[in-house]
């Protein structure tokens, strides 16, 4: 038996969960340069070393795959934004805002595609987007030690909409310094919740 005819090491078979996680991870790796709606299944399958049809063994269709990638990206964003345990309350909101602006600066196209996809009526993006916003509202209410009532939820949700729009346009055309932007966002939030 020659060296070239010897069998290689046995290939490890991935469990269905491991394979799904691998495919979602590939989607996440592509997101910084490619909005989720533009990910090609052929490219994802090629990077995973599987056929396109095998990818659809793990995800029923493109929408299910895109939803899984979008949800994983939203979870990463939330993990990135949430304050470290033990952070003083006053620093939590400011730190969250700073990390949020940094995220949008780092991934502007992906971020805008996410926000516009939700606003444009893509139901699978909208669902993940609303879940993410709801979790952020809850974190803000808890951090600011505000009652969780309908009025305050509406106010904080409106502030998130304002923040998304302002930060998205600021990244494309900075009209104030980053520090001034953060101060403005915090000031608007403080004024809104004080009225509640």
Automatic annotation (TrEMBL):
Keywords: DNA-binding. It holds the Pfam family TetR_N. The keyword ATP-binding does not apply. This is DNA-binding transcriptional regulator, AcrR family. Residues 17-77 form the HTH tetR-type domain. GO terms for molecular function: DNA-binding transcription factor activity; transcription cis-regulatory region binding. It comes from Blastococcus tunisiensis. The lineage of its organism: Bacteria, Bacillati, Actinomycetota, Actinomycetes, Geodermatophilales. The keyword DNA-binding applies. Gene3D superfamilies: Tetracycline Repressor, domain 2 (1.10.357.10). Residues 40-59 bind DNA. PROSITE patterns: HTH_TETR_2.
């Amino acid at each position: 038996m020659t060296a070239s005819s010897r069998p290689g090491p046995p290939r490890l078979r991935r469990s269905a969960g491991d394979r799904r996680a691998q495919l979602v991870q590939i989607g996440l790796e592509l997101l910084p340069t490619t909005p989720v709606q533009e990910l090609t299944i052929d490219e994802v399958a090629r990077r995973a070393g599987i056929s396109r049809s095998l990818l659809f063994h793990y995800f029923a269709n493109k929408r299910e795959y895109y939803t899984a990638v979008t949800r994983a990206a939203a979870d990463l964003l939330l993990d990135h934004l949430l304050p470290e345990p033990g952070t003083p309350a006053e620093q939590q909101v400011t730190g969250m805002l700073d990390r949020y602006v940094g995220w949008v600066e780092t991934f502007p196209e992906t971020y805008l595609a996410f926000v516009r996809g939700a606003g444009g009526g893509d139901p699978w993006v909208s669902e993940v987007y609303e879940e993410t916003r709801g979790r952020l509202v809850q974190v803000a209410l808890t951090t600011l030690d505000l009652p969780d009532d309908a009025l305050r939820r509406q106010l904080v949700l409106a502030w998130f909409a304002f923040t998304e729009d302002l930060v998205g346009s600021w990244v494309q055309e900075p009209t104030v310094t980053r520090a001034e932007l953060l101060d403005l966002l915090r000031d608007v939030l403080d004024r809104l919740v004080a009225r509640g």
